[in-house]
Amino acid sequence: MDFMSSERPINPRFAEDVHFNLVAQGPPKYRTRTDKPVRYLTVVDKEGGQVLGYVWAGDEDDAAAWAPSQAAGGRALAEGGHWHARLQEAKERGLSPSAALSEMLSNPEGNRGRVLPGSLTDAPNADAVKALAKGE
Hints:
Elements: E1 38-45, E2 51-58, E3 63-68, H1 74-92, H2 97-106, E4 113-115, E5 121-123, H3 126-134
Antiparallel strand pairs: 1-2, 1-4, 1-5, 2-3
């Protein structure tokens, strides 16, 4: 009896080619990180003018996000839902991040905040905007 036979039965489950289907991860989204240059808008409170946060966007990495101002606390986090939803909706329509920012400039109203006129500015990357939001 040969116990070292090189012939092994093939498990029928593995005899066929294996195919993987990609499963969609929900609606399309902009990336939330980039080390490439970005442009950003400042969003201020409609009542007191306090900075609530910044909407930044960079076409090179198809990235855009809301950076809440740490100093504005909960108001900044609450307002972020509005700007995040606007970015999401722009992405679903196939807009580039810079086109989404342009749209926000032409329709600057948020829930509690609004885009500060003339605030469109360049930054070296998203981390610079996030640092600004933290008050660094």
